[in-house]
Amino acid sequence: LESNNLPLVDAIKQHQRNKPMSLHVPGHKNGKVFHHKLYKDFQSVLPYDVTELSGLDDLHAPTGAILEAQKAAARFYQAKETFFLVGGSTVGNLAMIYGMFNRGDQVFVQRNSHKSIFHALQIAGLTAILLTPDFDEGSGLAVGITEPTLKKALRMYPKAKGLLITYPNYYGISLGVEPIITLAKQHSLHVLVDEAHAAHFCLGQPFPPSTLHLGADVVVQSAHKMLPALTMSSFLHISDKLNDNFRHSIKEALSMFQSSSPSYLLMASLDGARAYAQSLSKADLNTILAGVQAVKKELSTIKQFRILNWDDRYLSDPLKVTIRTTTNVTGFKLQEIFSMNNIYTELADDKHVLLVFGLGENALDKEAVESIRQSLHGYELRNEELAMNASQVELGIKQLQFNFDQIRQLPKKQIPLEMAEGFVAAEAIVPYPPGVPIILPGERIDQGTLVEINKLVEAGATFQVEQQLENVLVIDVEDENG
Ligand SMILES: Cc1ncc(COP(=O)(O)O)c(C=O)c1O
Fold first, then answer.
1. Which residues, including other chains, have CB under 8 Å from residue 159's CB and lie 6 or more apart?
2. Which tens digits make up the pLDDT trace of 445-465?
3. Residues linked to residue 108 through DSSP beta bridges, in sequence order
4. Cα 305 to averaged position of ligand 1 atoms, centre (Å)
C-alpha cells in the first residue's frame, strides 16, 4: 500500500535501529549533544537529522531511499518526476525559472507573483513582461490572468518564451487556468506554475485540479503550507511533456540553489506528508471538511465580520476561509483580536483575515470564539463597499523600465517615499505576508501605488524593510530613458 510505503523514513529508522555511533556531522551526534533547554524536547526527532551515510542516499545524486521516496511522490502526483526541496517553494521557483530560460529571454509573469519569482527573473537575467491579473471586485484580491490579457500580450511580444503563473492565490481562490495554459502552449510557451498553496489539490474533488494535469510543464508546491510537512519542505514536479534537456537544467539549478547538506528531517517529513495525504479516504476528507463547515457556521454568528462566499466563477480551496470585517475594525486589528484569544491566523490585509485549516481535525475553542465575540461587541456595522470596481483595472501589460542587470549599474539615491511619484524604483517594496511586491525594481512608481502603500501602512501592514518605510531607493538619473 502506497500510504505505508515511506522509503526514506524506513531507511532512517533502519539506520537508528543499530544504535549507530556518530563520528560525522551534524555536531549534535544523533541528539546526544544539545543545550539542556532543548535536549528533552528534541530527543525524539534529532536521530532523524542525519546526513549522507551509507544506506541514506544523497539528494543531489539519488539512487536509493531518496530516489524511491521521490518516485513515490511522483506516482502520487502523476508527475514525470518529483524533486524534494529543502528551501521552500522559493528554491523551486528559483530553479525552475533559472533552468528553463536563457539570459535575455522575455517571459510573461503574473504581476502579483511572490517575490521569489521576481528574484528568479533577476538571477536568470530575464526580461519580465508583467501581466495584470483580474481582481475580485468584492474583496479586491487578484484572482489570476485572463485570456484577453494573455492574447494581447502574445500580440505585443510574439517572441516571449514563457508564462509564469501563480495558482491559486494565497486565499485559495483562482479563475480557471486551463484556457490560459492551453493558449500559452499553442504559442509554444513554457508554462511554469507557482502552486505554493496547492500541494493538497492532488486529493481531487472538492479541491480544484493541479495545473500539472492541465498542461503545465513545471509545478512547484510548498508541501509545508497545506500538507503536514515541516516548514520549508516542498516539491518540484515536472510533467511528462518536458524533455530531458530541460529536466537536466532544472536538476543542475537545484544543485546550485539547494544546500549541499539538505536536511533529512525535512526530506523525511516530505516522505511522510505524501504518504499521509495518500492515506486519506473519501470519508476522512468529508470529516475534515465538515469540521471546517462547523467552524464557519460558528463564526458566522459573529456579526462584526462576514465569511466570504466566493463567486461560482472561481475555483476555491475549501481549507481556506476568508473573513471580512463589517465594521471599522481593520483586518489587521481583527487578526490581533483573534491572536489575543490564542487563535493565530495566517494572514490579514486591510479588510480580511485568512484562516487556513489542515488535513486533520478542524475545530475552534468555544470559549475563544465567545471571547472574540465579546471583544467585537459594540462595533457598529458599516455598509460594505466593493473593494474595487472593474473600471479601475486596466488590461495591464507592461515591461519594466530597466532590467535587473541595468539597475545594478545605474546610480541610485534614497528619497522620501511620498516624493517618489514618477521615479523608477531600484528596490522592491514587499508587504509580508503575503510577500507579493507592491513595487518592483525597475518599475515606475505611480500615484495609485503610493496611495495603496499608505492605505496598507495606515491599516497596520508590515513590510520587509530594514528600517521604517519612509524612504525608497530609486534610480538617480535626470532622464532614465535618455
Ligand atoms: C505564492 C507563493 N509562492 C511562493 C512562496 C514561497 O514559498 P516558501 O515559503 O515555501 O519558500 C509563497 C510563500 O508564502 C507564496 O505565497
1. 106
2. 999 899 989 988 888 888 987
3. 129, 163
4. 27
pLDDT digits (tens, 9 = 90+) for 85-120: 999 999 999 999 999 999 999 999 999 999 999 999
| Ligand 1 neighbourhood includes 20 CB (under 6 angstroms) | no
C-alpha 198/C-alpha 69 separation (Å) is 20
Q: Pocket of ligand 1, candidates 96, 97, 112, 222: which has the most ligand atoms within 8 Å of its Cβ, to mutate?
A: 222
The CB of 89 under 6 Å from ligand 1? The reply is yes
The predicted-structure confidence for 211-262, as pLDDT tens digits, reads as follows: 999 999 999 999 999 999 999 999 999 999 999 999 999 999 999 999 999 9
Q: Distance (Å, rounded) from C-alpha 284 to C-alpha 121?
A: 41
Residue 339, all three cell numbers: 491572536
Longest dimension (CA), the chain: 70
d(CA 122, CA 2): 40
C-alpha cell at 194: 507557482
482: CB partners within 8 A, 6+ apart? none
In the chain, the amino acid numbered 212 is L
Of ligand 1's atoms, which has the minimum distance to the CA of residue 232?
Answer: 10
- The neighbouring-strand residues paired with 81 are 238
Atom number of ligand 1 nearest to Cα 234: 10
Strands 190-194 and 218-221, bridge-based pairing: parallel
Q: Does residue 114's CB lie within 6 angstroms of at least one atom of ligand 1?
A: yes
CA angle 357, 363, 369 (to 5 degrees): 105
| CA 3 to ligand 1 centroid distance, Å | 27
User: What are the tens digits of pLDDT across the range 319-358?
Assistant: 999 999 999 999 999 999 999 999 999 999 989 999 999 9
Q: Which residue type, as a one-letter code, is found at position 156?
A: M
C-alpha 222 – ligand 1 centre gap (Å): 7
Cβ–ligand 1 distance for 221 under 6 Å, the answer no
3-state SS assignment for residue 174 = strand
Q: How would residue 396 be classed by pLDDT, with cut points 50, 70 and 90? A: confident
3-state secondary structure of 348: strand
Ligand 1, residue 435: give the atom nearest the CA: 14
Q: Does the beta carbon of 234 lie inside 6 Å of ligand 1?
A: yes
Helix (H, G, I), strand (E, B) or coil at 262: coil
State whether the Cα torsion 335-294-226-109 is positive or negative. negative
pTM, rounded to two decimals: 0.95
